[in-house]
Recover the amino acids of this structure.
């Protein structure tokens, strides 16, 4: 098993560095491209949510860990921002409405398996898995 | 960030020269797009071959660009890589945008910014 753990400041510019680092490890370990892409999307959404809605410009920390398992990635995102109530189902907005936001949680929930949230010791903790075999985006 | 490639059958052809279209550059992208589309063109075709990754903020910026252009001047996208295409499919935005496999050949290369 390989585990990568990173702790960083809640800034959008940091998210790029973190995702580049995680992607480099996944490439070196031959994680399938689809799982790399899925993890990038889910982490980008969760980390940006924490920065924009959790910390809202305040100082703090964000933590992220990825365990490379045989056929999936085991992931955890933690922060010290305010508690929140993540949706457990979130339909994507109607594409014809041409909304400029509101897609984040539906992307997270359609790509992350076994999503769990808990508030622990004054911190938010999100856990999820990214399977190596991904479901089709929708029936063709 | 954006390069103006030129025109093809009256359409303005642009290429986005960014590896990631995410929350950290979504706003700058929208501003660059607004400047670039000041040039004429019946439609705007945006090439995305360089973009390896896009999140929902990047998607929102592209939708914003489409709205900026208005109903008479469509924003079309070309050369979407698999991870970017996935976000379009999951959000069903692939049903809203006209997607091209390849950028059309252009004439009259105008300017780079």
């Amino acid at each position: 098993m390989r585990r990568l753990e990173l702790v960083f400041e809640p800034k959008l510019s940091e998210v790029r560095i973190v995702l580049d680092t995680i992607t480099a490890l996944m490439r070196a370990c031959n994680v399938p491209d689809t799982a790399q892409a899925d993890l990038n999307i889910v982490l980008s959404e969760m980390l940006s949510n924490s920065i924009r809605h959790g910390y809202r410009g305040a100082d703090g920390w964000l933590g992220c860990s990825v365990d490379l398992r045989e056929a999936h990635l085991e992931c955890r995102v933690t922060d010290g921002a305010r508690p929140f109530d993540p949706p457990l189902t979130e339909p994507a907005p109607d594409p014809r409405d041409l909304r400029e936001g509101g897609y984040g949680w539906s992307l997270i929930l359609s790509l992350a398996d076994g999503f769990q949230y808990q508030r622990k010791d004054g911190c938010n903790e999100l856990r999820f898995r990214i399977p190596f075999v991904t479901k089709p985006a929708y029936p063709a | 960030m954006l390069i103006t490639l030129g025109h093809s059958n009256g359409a303005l052809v642009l290429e986005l020269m960014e590896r990631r279209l995410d929350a950290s550059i979504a706003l700058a992208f929208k501003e660059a797009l607004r400047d670039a589309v000041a040039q004429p063109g019946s439609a705007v075709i945006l090439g995305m071959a360089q973009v390896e990754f896009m999140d929902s903020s990047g998607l929102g910026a592209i939708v914003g660009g489409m709205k900026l252009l208005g109903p008479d001047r469509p924003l079309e996208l070309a050369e979407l890589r698999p991870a970017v295409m996935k976000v379009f499919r999951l959000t069903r935005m692939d049903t809203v945008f006209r997607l091209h496999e390849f950028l059309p050949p252009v004439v009259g290369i105008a300017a780079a910014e």
User: Anything to note?
Assistant: Chain B touches chain A through 26 residues (CB under 8 Å). The longest helix of chain B spans residues 56-69.
